[in-house]
C-alpha cells in the first residue's frame, strides 16, 4: 500500500493519509488501482479491500505508537459495499489493530452508482461502528446532489476534473470549484480538493475556502513505511501559500466580489503589493474597489478580473492598461 497525505489548508498539517493500492509488475514498475482493478471480479475486489484495510490499519497503529496522530482512509468499491459481510470485516479489522473507528475514513467513488438496499444498510452499519464515510471524486459522476441528500457522508472529496481547466477558463473554473466547496460548507461537511499538482493551484483552493487539499503539490504517494520520515521533515504548507501569483490573486479578487466594492482600505489588502508592481493603471483599478478612488468601481473591477484572467490564460486577451 502507498499513502498520500491530505492536509489542512489552514494549518498546513497532514490530517489523513489515503491508502492507495499498487501492483508491482514483473518489470518492477508499479500499476495504479485504475490500471488493474477494472480487471478484477467482485470477489477479488472484496479481497483487495480487506487487504488494503488490514494493511492500512496496521500502518496507522504503528504511526500512532510513534506519536503521529493522523487518520487513514481506504477506498471502498460500491460492489463491496453491497456485500452484507462488509461492516463485519471492518469491525473485526478495527478490533484486531486496536484502532478507534473515528480514525478510519471509507471513500466511496462518486463515479459508481449506489442503488441497492444492501448498500444502504451497510452504510448505516458502518456509521453505527463510528466509521466516517467520504464521497470520492465529487463532480465526476452519478447523481451528486441526490446522493449527498440521501446518504450521511462525513467528508466530500472534489475531483481534480473540476479544476483541470483553470488555465484555459479560470473564472468559470473558480465558479465551479467554489460552488462545490460551498456545497460542503452548507451541508456542514468538510471538503477536500483533490489533484492539486502545483503550489499555485493549492493557493487557489485555500483562497476559495477549501478546508483540505490533496495532490502532488503536497506529496506524491509514498510507501507506508516512509510516512514517519515525511511527516517529520515536511514544513507546514501554509507558509508557502502566499498571494504572489496571478492565479492566487485572481481567486482572491473574485472571492471578494470581483466587480463590486471591497471592504477596508487598499493598504491593508493582501493583493495590493502584487498589483502595485504591475503599473499605476492596474493599481488604480484595484484601489477603486476599496473606495480609495471615486471612480467606476464596477468597470474597473471587471477590467481587473479580465486582466488577471488573461495572465492565467494568456490566449484570452487582456484589457488595455492605460
UniProtKB/TrEMBL annotation:
A Pfam short name: EAL
UniProt-recorded name of the protein: EAL domain-containing protein
PANTHER family linked: CYCLIC DI-GMP PHOSPHODIESTERASE PDEF, SIGNALING PROTEIN YKOW
GO molecular function: cyclic-guanylate-specific phosphodiesterase activity
PROSITE patterns: EAL
Domain of life according to the entry: Bacteria
Domain EAL: 1-235
Amino acid at each position: 500500500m502507498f499513502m498520500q497525505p491530505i492536509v489542512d489548508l489552514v494549518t498546513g498539517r497532514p490530517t489523513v493519509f489515503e491508502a492507495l493500492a499498487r501492483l508491482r509488475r514483473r518489470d518492477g514498475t508499479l500499476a495504479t488501482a485504475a490500471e488493474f482493478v477494472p480487471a478484477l471480479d467482485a470477489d477479488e475486489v472484496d479481497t483487495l479491500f480487506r487487504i488494503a484495510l488490514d494493511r492500512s490499519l496496521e500502518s496507522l497503529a504503528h504511526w500512532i505508537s510513534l506519536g503521529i496522530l493522523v487518520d487513514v482512509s481506504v477506498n471502498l468499491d460500491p460492489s463491496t459495499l453491497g456485500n452484507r459481510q462488509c461492516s463485519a470485516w471492518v469491525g473485526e479489522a478495527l478490533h484486531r489493530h486496536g484502532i478507534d473507528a473515528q480514525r478510519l475514513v471509507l471513500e466511496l467513488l462518486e463515479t459508481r452508482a449506489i442503488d441497492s438496499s444492501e448498500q444502504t444498510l451497510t452504510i448505516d452499519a458502518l456509521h453505527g461502528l463510528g466509521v466516517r464515510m467520504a464521497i470520492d471524486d465529487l463532480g465526476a459522476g452519478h447523481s451528486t446532489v441526490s446522493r449527498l441528500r440521501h446518504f450521511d457522508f462525513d467528508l466530500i472529496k472534489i475531483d481534480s476534473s473540476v479544476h483541470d481547466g483553470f488555465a484555459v477558463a479560470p473564472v468559470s473554473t473558480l465558479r465551479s470549484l467554489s460552488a462545490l466547496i460551498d456545497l460542503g460548507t452548507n451541508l456542514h461537511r468538510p471538503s477536500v480538493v483533490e489533484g492539486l499538482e502545483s503550489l499555485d493551484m493549492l493557493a487557489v483552493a485555500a483562497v476559495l475556502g477549501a478546508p483540505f487539499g490533496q495532490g502532488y503539490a503536497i506529496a506524491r504517494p509514498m510507501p507506508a513505511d516512509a510516512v514517519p520520515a515525511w511527516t517529520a521533515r515536511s514544513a507546514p504548507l501554509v507558509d508557502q501559500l502566499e498571494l504572489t501569483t496571478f492565479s492566487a490573486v485572481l481567486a482572491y479578487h473574485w472571492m471578494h466580489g470581483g466587480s463590486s466594492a471591497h471592504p477596508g482600505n487598499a493598504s491593508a489588502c493582501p493583493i495590493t503589493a502584487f498589483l502595485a508592481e504591475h503599473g499605476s493603471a492596474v493599481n488604480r483599478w484595484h484601489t477603486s474597489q476599496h473606495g480609495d478612488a471615486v471612480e467606476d468601481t464596477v468597470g474597473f473591477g471587471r477590467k481587473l478580473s479580465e486582466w488577471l484572467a488573461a495572465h492565467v490564460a494568456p490566449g484570452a486577451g487582456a484589457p488595455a492598461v492605460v
